Amino acid sequence: MCLKKRVKKLRKIGVKKMSEKMVTEQEFNYLSQKPGVQLIKAGTYAMKEISPMLDQPGLKSQIIDVPVCTNENAIQMGYFSMQPSEDLEYTYTFLEIKVIVNGKIVVRDDQGKKYVGEAGDVFIFSPETTVIFDGTSDGDAIYTAHRLPEPSFM
Question: Who's near 107: CB < 8 A, 6+ residues apart?
């Protein structure tokens, strides 16, 4: 199965689950439920392998979504990790900010321009942007996204 079909399959799975289940904001355990400070210790959330979701056995990449708030402008945070493996194509339909915290993550846009993000660098992905996470990537990132959580990433 080609990469684009795998990504479409992942999106279909998520959309199908959401439409079948009628996912609402109240079904998630949001972090921001009361005023105060919260500290999330490293390792609190177990990451999920992306490979089985895309039926792409050669991909070595993990993700976890953590719901933050329920208001009209929902925000999501999560962790993303990628090890040298196959390329991963993804189309952002929402705003996402990804901060590289370890190693490097290499991204190519639909024009073929290459961006190398290293520890401390920040990627900003605008809606309707298709990128390819290069298989040479070997890094970790935290992200925030302007969307509800993706159930298959939780």
Answer: 114, 115, 117, 123, 131, 132, 133, 134
Alpha carbons 114 and 106: distance in angstroms, whole number: 7
Contact 20, 125 (CB under 8 A): no
The vertex-153 CA angle with 39 and 138, nearest 5°, equals 80
pLDDT digit string (tens) for 82-98?
999 999 999 999 889 99
pLDDT digits (tens, 9 = 90+) for 30-44: 777 666 667 777 788
The pTM score is: 0.68
Query: H/E element holding 19?
Result: helix 3-21
Q: Which residues contact 1 (CB under 8 A, 6 or more apart)?
A: 9, 55, 56
